[in-house]
Amino acid sequence: MKQITLPLICFIVILCLYITPSTAQDSKFINLNSPAIDPPSIDYFVLDVFDNREIKSSIGVTKTGDNQKTGSLNFTSGFHDELNNYFSKTFPEEEGTIPVFLIIKKLWITEIDEEGYNYSKCKIVIEFQTPEKQKFYECNNTNKIKLSDGINVHQENLIISLNTCMKNLEDAEIKKTYYALLSSSIPSGSSKEEFTSTKKNHIAGEDNKSISSPSKARITLQFGYTHRTKRVPDGVNVNTKNYYKKLKNSFHVGTDINYFWNENNSIGVSASFSPAKSTLPDLVDIDSLGNIIAQGDLNQNVNLFYVGPSYFSRSIGSNTKTHVLFGLTMGYYGYNERLNWIGETVNLTGGTIGFGFSLGVDFLSSEHFAAGLQASLLMGWLKKIKVDGNLIELAERENLTRIDLTIGFRFLP
User: Fold this and answer.
1) Count of CB atoms within 10 A of residue 263's CB?
2) Which of 247, 254, 309, 413 could form a disulfide with 272 if both were Cys (CB 3.0 to 4.6 A apart)?
3) Average pLDDT over residues 226-247
4) Coil, helix or strand for 32?
């Protein structure tokens, strides 16, 4: 029982520590779906929004009612989706409008006290680029609004800040810079109108998009080294010890299929299969009188397979090409063993609840592909087993716990 209790407690503690920040810190969410502020009238439209922030876990912090604790502030949907939808609705493509890319370098909202009043403070830095990814303007804006209605004030403050940066594009010098860069990229014999029309669906920023707007789906194919933590019996000879070591150390193949409901969190399913085999040469059966009645090689094949629902959390690095993922899973852990000795075969099968966690890194090489490394621990103990179809209860639980070191490919459709 102690074998199960300690790892189970550790698993639950890790799960609680990882999940509770979103609730214990009183997280708040805002959305930009129905802005109450009229946008400025400008002749630009946004091709896409890219996320180049250093801090990607949230967009700010807020205080609780007693001002003793702080909580995270975030969008209802993912960062890229929220802003891209806002700009596409607020500054849509229309005849005569000019295409731009937006690079969000900083977006941070916080609550401050000044002269006895509470304010919502929004700090935003946006780099504007032509369709050829040429920087022509950077907006560095800070805006404060007196707090009166909590989350709605933060939303209003953010919209004002975004609209201020967009309005600045109407400045004559900024437009002059834009068109100067644009003209330098116009092919010989082409008009500016033809060029901007061609670039409206330009994918020069596709590399940025693949990094800044991560895929909502993740499918992995992976394989690697497996080590079972089951202890080798004491007092055995060298041949028997080597026999057990081959069963402890093998390989595995597996997959994770996940859907991210926002930039950082996903649900899905995980599955893996780990086969191992070993041979104990010249195993002898001796009767009560000491006579050898049988002798031969003992062949053992053990297959471990797992399938269950999983949760993955994704943290995107500052270079946006590196994703760190932490996973939790709990499901069915199956066991299949076949023993063969001097022509006799015995089949043993069983199953139990398995639970585990993993830590991995994905290295993106393109929008839809990555290579990855992962270390995981899958735990389970078998209490009962079927021997040639007959169910028996084991005197000592069979330890199925294993450590997997994995490399593999990630497909991001």
Assistant:
1) 24
2) 254
3) 87
4) coil
